[in-house]
Automatic annotation (TrEMBL):
Protein role: Putative receptor for purines coupled to G-proteins.
Alphabetized SUPFAM superfamilies for the sequence: Family A G protein-coupled receptor-like
UniProt gene name: P2RY10
Listed GO biological process terms: phospholipase C-activating G protein-coupled receptor signaling pathway; positive regulation of Rho protein signal transduction
Protein's recorded name: Putative P2Y purinoceptor 10
Gene3D superfamilies: Rhodopsin 7-helix transmembrane proteins (1.20.1070.10)
Organism annotation: Camelus ferus (Wild bactrian camel)
Pfam families noted in UniProt: 7tm_1
């Protein structure tokens, strides 16, 4: 009897509704969509111009922009759903958008880690950096996409059971398929170790090591500036990682256990589900924060962006000058026409 009561309490608490999540998700995605789309599109365009700069982690930055852009392009569908509470599209599209969210998260984590590690390594081993080949970065990036893509597949699969019963629901309203405790522990272990602990330790070490190099060695002014840029880039990777991904991964094991109905305390369950919503919103901010890594810390990117901006401004000025010139010519023609009419009347 007591066991049945506990199971019923867990089920009831797990199904607690969080009405604020719809407005919070919709607002977050609306605020992220335009800046994320513009920033990552511009970043991708400018970074591709410097693809030959093998010492600047350009390949990893390009892949980071692609990961962010893929998720950003799915945001309008998410915004529509959280405003209308209705999914009129195909089931596969719902699962694809769900998949892209987690693919973006873990691909971003991997590429931020690679950027930090490479910049730190090139500072520690400057002579090895000269022999570094661009194809190495391409190969590492391809391996990351394959591994992360395969590792994220179980997430939409576990949610697909909810679509079988209600095809008008998607995203947060999809239930989580019940799996064995061993499978849950395996997912939590892989996500926490491979997707959080190992990357965060690597990024923190790279930040500390890069800072230590700057303090210990006296180098020419030009090299000091380059090393400071590397430090700031690694530091920004750490900031993006801590702000966006740490809250989610701190809460993820408890969220999985709540969904598997391990806990029976309603207050704890409600707090876990509430924090899960907040942490997902923070995780989505990486689409806007990632461009900071290469915009403010990479001189080539800044120069390219300013160059493109100046070209756009020059084009606008030329268009404006042409418009004014046409306007003046029209006025001159009107004046000549009036003078001609006056002369005709006089005659």
């Amino acid at each position: 009897m007591g066991s049945n009561s506990a199971n019923s309490t867990r089920a009831k608490c797990t199904d607690l509704q969080m009405p604020f999540q719809y407005s919070l998700y919709a607002t977050t995605y609306i605020l992220i969509f335009i800046p994320g789309l513009l920033a990552n599109s511009a970043a991708l365009c400018v970074l591709c111009r410097f693809i030959s700069k093998k010492k600047k982690a350009i390949i990893f930055m390009i892949n980071l922009s692609v990961a962010d852009l893929a998720h950003v392009l799915s945001l309008p569908l998410r915004i529509y759903y959280y405003i209308s509470h209705h999914w009129p599209f195909q089931r596969a599209l719902c699962l694809l958008c769900f998949y892209l969210k987690y693919l973006n998260m873990y691909a971003s984590i991997c590429f931020l880690t690679c950027i930090s590690l490479q910049r730190c390594f090139f500072l520690l081993k400057p002579f090895r950096a000269r022999d570094w080949k661009r194809r190495y970065d391409v190969g590492i990036s391809a391996a990351i996409w394959v591994i992360v893509g395969a590792a994220c597949l179980p997430l939409p699969i576990l949610r697909s059971a909810g679509l079988a019963n209600n095809t008008e629901s998607c995203f947060a309203d999809l239930g989580l398929q019940h799996i064995s405790m061993a499978s849950s522990i395996g997912m939590i272990t892989v996500a926490e170790l491979g997707g959080f602990l190992l990357p965060v330790v690597t990024i923190i070490y790279c930040t500390w090591r890069t800072r230590k190099i700057l303090q210990e060695f006296q180098v020419p002014l030009q090299n000091t500036k380059e090393r400071k840029k590397a430090l700031w880039m690694v530091l920004m990777c750490a900031v993006v990682f801590i702000v966006c991904f740490t809250p989610y991964h701190l809460n993820f094991p408890f969220f999985m256990m709540v969904k598997q109905q391990v806990f029976s305390n309603c207050s704890f369950i409600k707090s876990t589900l509430w924090f899960h919503i907040i942490s997902l919103c923070l995780a989505n901010l990486n689409c806007c924060l990632d461009p900071v890594v290469y915009y403010f810390m990479t001189s080539e990117f800044r120069d390219g962006f300013l160059e493109r901006s100046s070209l756009i401004l020059q084009s606008c000025v030329r268009c404006k000058d042409s418009a004014l010139e046409i306007h003046h010519k029209k006025e001159d023609l009107q004046t000549i026409s009036l003078e001609f009419l006056d002369d005709s009347k006089t005659m």
